[in-house]
Structures are given as structure tokens and as C-alpha cells.
Amino acid sequence: FGQGRLRFSTLHWRKIPICSQLKSAEESAKSAKLRMWKNYVEEEKVDRKEEEKVPTERQVNYEEVVVTEITPEGHFYAQRVQDGSKAEALLAKLRQEFEANPPLPGAYNAKKGDLCAAKFTMDDEWYRAKVEKVQGGKATVHYIDYGNRETLATTRLASLPASYASDKPFAAEYILPYVTLPKDEEYAAIALKYFKQDTAVPKLLLNVEYRIPGSPPAASLHTEKTSEGDLVRNLIREGLLIVENVKGRRQNKLLEGYKEAQEQAKREHLNIWEYGDITEDDAKEFGLGN
Question: pTM of the prediction?
């Protein structure tokens, strides 16, 4: 231990007198960076990161939005209401230009990462799109002003004139705050179905609850400025979303409300809670219930 040859097991070490001496020797080896501890880096505390995920005081700054796309992972894309007309005007001008000077099919050589024009198969209209994959005469594109994706023939793509490339995407991606979809595919599909139905309205109120580096902002959606108007809370209350087990002592009213809604759904055995507490089953599976 003291020479850095062996690693000490922490299991029940406090109950064995000699173990405290061995633990001390191990700590000395760590400090001196001996042998197996040469490249040792102290593990970061997870609790602090989890705690930082929960703002102590919730900041409320509602924006009026239209939800334009729901992804299979439960993410969503939204346009600010005030930007809707701008996007439509930009695309109308692009289509007029293409109508006057039609792109030659197949002339555009699509490459991954390109910003281009794509002719959406549902309505045969041109939209701004980003190329995500090219293979075998087909391309997968992301329509940046609405959030949806599709795979189509590369002959339906064209070079985007420079004057249309400077405007930022009119749709932004978000994740739902403090919740995950059910692991069960059938219940996950039901949750997505109702989420799509709930968001298929002319206008919603969006509030960014927190941000995590490397991830889209986490935002709640509301039909009105009350807890009853919170779409996420309502899906939790119906037993269709699972509240994350956020560690740490810091809470806020939104997260507390989500937990209360989940407890109500559990008591009433709604949807994913029909046969009991599935979170307890997960804990037992990973040996956390002992």
C-alpha cells in the first residue's frame, strides 16, 4: 500500500482496526504518486454537478413560440412567434428566385455539413437545409428553420444562394427539464403522441429553466402562466414522463411540483406506474435497494 503496489478496498474498512492504517498508507502513496498511483486523478464529485443543474431560484422569462417538431428522443424545436413571418418571407423569396431560375437537377454536389436548399417531399417546396449524410444518391437533411429531417434524392437538393445563408436558423432545439421518456418503448411512444398533440396549437409560452454545456437548453412549455398550464407537469401527472432523480439539496418550485405530480401518478397507478414503482425496480436491478 505505502509503496503504491496495491489498491485498498473501502468496503467495511472502518470496522477493522488495522484497515485504518492501510488506508492511511494508501493515501500517502496517492499523494506521492507512487507506482500505480502515478497517473491517478481524483474523481470529481457528481453531486455538485447534479446540484448545479437545479437553479435555487427559478428565473421566469416567457417567450411566445410555435413548436415545429418533436424528435423521437423527446426533444423539440420551436420558432419564436415573432420570427414566423420572417421565415416565411425568406423562403417565399427563395422560391421566387428558384422559379425564375430553376436549379439544374443533379448539378449540386452535396457534402456533409453543407447548407443547401432542399425540396421537401411533403409539399414539393424549397427550404433551407443542412446536409447530415450522403450515401448512394440519397441525402439526409435537417430543415434548419423547422427542425424536421428527411432522407431524399440528392437531385432534390440545390446550392443555396449566399444571400439566404446569413440568417440564423429560425427554429431552436430544446430538451424537457428534469424528465426523461419511459424506457418501455410502448409508453415512450404514447408519451410522444400526447406531447405532439399538446403542442399542436398556434402559440405556447416557453421558459428556459437551465442550461447544460454541450446540450440544448432545457425548457418548459405552457398554455398559460400557471402550474396547470405546464405541459410537462401534466404529462408527468398522467404517468407518461419520469422525473429525474436529481441529487443534491437544492430544489426549486418547478422541480418540487414535478415530483408531487409524479407521486400522484404513482398513487393512482397511471400508465407507467400501473404495476407499481418502476424506479424501485431499477434500483433493485442495480443493487441500490439493499
Answer: 0.78
